[in-house]
Specification:
Layout: E1 12-17, E2 21-26, E3 32-37, E4 43-50, E5 53-58, E6 62-66, E7 73-78, E8 87-91, E9 94-98, E10 103-107, E11 114-119, E12 129-135, E13 140-146, E14 150-156, E15 163-172, E16 174-180, E17 183-188, E18 195-200, E19 212-216, E20 223-224, E21 229-232, H1 235-239, E22 247-250, E23 252-255, H2 258-261
Parallel strand pairs: 1-23
Antiparallel strand pairs: 1-2, 2-3, 4-5, 5-6, 6-7, 8-9, 9-10, 10-11, 12-13, 13-14, 14-15, 16-17, 17-18, 18-19, 20-23, 21-22
């Protein structure tokens, strides 16, 4: 079921609701528009983009691909591991996840199978931390933080899995993140009023992390689970009826409301 969205300035971020809904979020205005319903009960690990498709996992550790124009999902296969509480992202080199023990895995986009790369050196999350994962073509960015505390930002090698602690984001309640046009975007939740925070990836260095508050998130988009930039030819006709040109998207997972999924999503988020 495809739906047209009004013309909006900014990047249209393809988003997946925590239950089963798929749509677009404008990262300048924070406005959300639904495109489809996915054939899953809920997304488990976050969202990734690779080779013109979106990817997500359900709580059964099954990998799905999602058409960005229609929101149609197709089963790829099982990860064959219990990674349903992991943080998930995609780069030009593939799909990646970090489990609750802070180990990095690569995910085969053709079969869904997961292969362990190695430990990141980050303390295990063990269900006590909010986490997110986003990716450039050559590096991964991971956030982790206890409820109500500012999240820490890490840079991780997709080759070795080794992490570098860049420092505090200065943002509490980071539910997810996305890389869009050289900017790292953080999606806040559980703060009453939630915002998108941004920083330039080029400016990131250990001890030099500063995020700027941006758009207030739509009330329907209170838990954005993660994302990755994706350019799709002709996508503008599907999600923006007035602009039949290529459009840039990032995929993220969202919850209906904080209260509705508190304590259920990844077994670690609580109301604040």
């Amino acid at each position: 079921m495809a739906a047209s969205a009004p013309a909006l300035f900014g990047n249209l971020l393809g988003v997946d609701f925590y239950d089963h809904r798929f749509g677009v979020l404008n990262d300048v205005t924070g406005a959300y528009t639904q495109i489809s319903n996915l054939p899953i009960s809920s997304a488990a690990a976050g969202i990734a983009a690779l080779n013109g498709l979106y990817y997500l996992e359900d709580f059964g550790n099954n990998l799905f691909s999602v058409d960005p124009l229609t929101g149609t999902a197709s089963l790829v296969g099982s990860t064959r591991r219990n990674l349903s509480a992991a943080a998930f992202a995609g780069t030009g080199s593939g799909l990646y996840e970090i489990d609750q023990s802070s180990n990095l895995y690569s995910i085969n986009s053709a079969t869904g199978a997961a292969t362990e790369i190695g430990p990141t050196g980050i303390a295990p999350a063990n269900g006590a931390y909010d986490t997110s994962l986003s990716a450039t073509a050559t590096e991964l960015f991971y956030t982790a933080g206890r409820g109500g505390q500012n999240d820490e930002l890490y840079e991780i090698s997709p080759v070795t899995g080794i992490a570098i602690d860049l420092g505090s984001t200065g943002v509490a309640g980071v539910a997810g993140s996305a890389l869009v046009n050289g900017e790292l975007e953080l999606f806040q939740y559980g703060r009453g009023t939630n915002y998108i925070y941004t920083t330039s990836v080029a400016s990131l260095a250990p001890g030099s992390v500063h995020f700027t508050q941006g758009a207030q998130l739509d009330a329907a988009a209170q838990i954005l689970d993660g994302g990755a930039s994706l350019t799709v030819s002709g996508a503008g006709a599907a999600v923006n009826g007035s602009t039949p040109e290529p459009a840039t998207f990032a995929l993220a997972g969202i919850g209906l409301t904080v209260g509705a999924v508190a304590g259920a999503r990844r077994g670690r988020r609580t109301s604040r």
